[in-house]
Amino acid sequence: MLWYKAWLETRARFLASLATLTIFCAVLVHHALYIACSNTFPCTEGWIRPGRQAEFYRLLLVTQEFLVFMWVLAVVLLGMGGIVREKALGTSSLTLSLPVSRTRLMRVRVGLGILEALALAVLPWATVFAISWIAKMPVLISQVGLYVLLLVGGGLVYFAMAVLVSSVVAGEYTAPALAVGVVLLGLIIFDAWLRRFNVWRLMTGDFSIDRDTYLLSGHLPWWGILASLSVAAVMLLASTLVVRRRDF
Amino acid sequence: MTNEPVILTHCLTKSYGAAEAVRALNLSVERNRITAFLGRNGAGKSTTIKMLLGMIRPTSGSGTLLGNQITDAEENRELRKRVAYVAEDKPLYGYMTVEQTIRFARSFYPDWRSDVEKKLLHDYELPLRRKVKALSKGMRTKLALLLAFARRPDLLILDEPSEGLDPVGIELLLQTLVVQAADGVSVFFSSHQIAEVERVADSVCILEKGCLLVDASLDHLRQSYRRIDLVLPTLVGEGEFLIPGVQRIQADGFHMSVFATNNAEAVVERAHGLNAISVEVSPVGLRDIFLETVREN
Q: Out of A5, A91, A247, whose CB is closest to B56?
């Protein structure tokens, strides 16, 4: 039932984010297909025209760039809440009186958050695939998989950061404002001075794209993904330790 | 079943910076009794309860609840299976309906009693499909109490349980407390409603500024606390009655009122020795005991 409680707490944020991201992707891919198919939908000629495929995949890269921005904001919102927020709302006494450890409370919250973050990556890209298939210009399923992998593998660090912030700051507006501030600050700093380590570029596929075909190559930045996931794991561990030690 | 106290603390202290919310508390709550925990606002009652349930880490000292160390996270989790707790502000998840809240709570406790749940749902007239955030304060209190009473815990800890209830609800609550105690459940509850406490409590603990001032059975308090009103033939200094057991003396001309926690006989004897015109010894209610105790400190 802890999963059920966590779902009830996040479902409004999750469903709103899912709808926004899916609709956004559907509109953008429809537009990309329309341009790639000489202003027709569905495409009557398929991939026959030279350069059409590259043009289409370039627009998919643009779709991913926008999607990364919106996905990061969505997972930051999903990372808000938890027992510290419950303290501010006055319900932490009920939650903490249950015969459940604080670690388990954190595990459930993080587990559901990761599943929701995964769904926010998979479903919009599944929509892209479905629309392209209807338009008779199906996106390579491997490309869909790689974009999802980059989004989740690189981006979970933002979710973990949001969980850490919400484990320290209780305010309804302070916590999300601080988390979004950290995202933007990180974006500026990495883009200006640490471009090679920029998670944002990793997530958009900028490190892995073939500039001729606009297809993601098989040479993914595995070390970057691993580093990003490791930092996320450390942040989640720190959050658990903070929550375990806190007074409520 | 042992006779070990259900709650036992040793020098339990909680400080927030320089301020001490609870000071070296040595509390012992006996099994199978209804124990009232009294104190003014900010006396440290809720902090004590939260320390017992592992929500707040004590600054120093130790304690056991049902034989489990309160500061050990794993033992504390285990003890919470056997303790039902209703917090001061009756926290409930506003986004759940009454039905969802009951289903949620039920899933954590194998000792849940569906028959009691049904009976209390009927008695409290709780609307199953209504969201908790749409309930009145009294309804929320009733739902919080239902979540505690529908279980079969070893210990019930209630923080201001009657807050928000109408007289009918309070009556029902008091009856339920007595029934629970008769079923072998130890009850530990804080309240500002002294009249309610006096009706059901077996023992009373009074906390003031984080210190335990009184820890005794209600019968003992009733037997030993006395107010002695004297009319003396001459003006006598208060010092004449500064004898062990006397807590407060109020003098007004030839009239003197002595509040004694025990040893009333010695006061009467001293008054007769001073040729008192009138000596009237009267028992003291819990309300006066409480007021005199906290006033003194």
A: A247
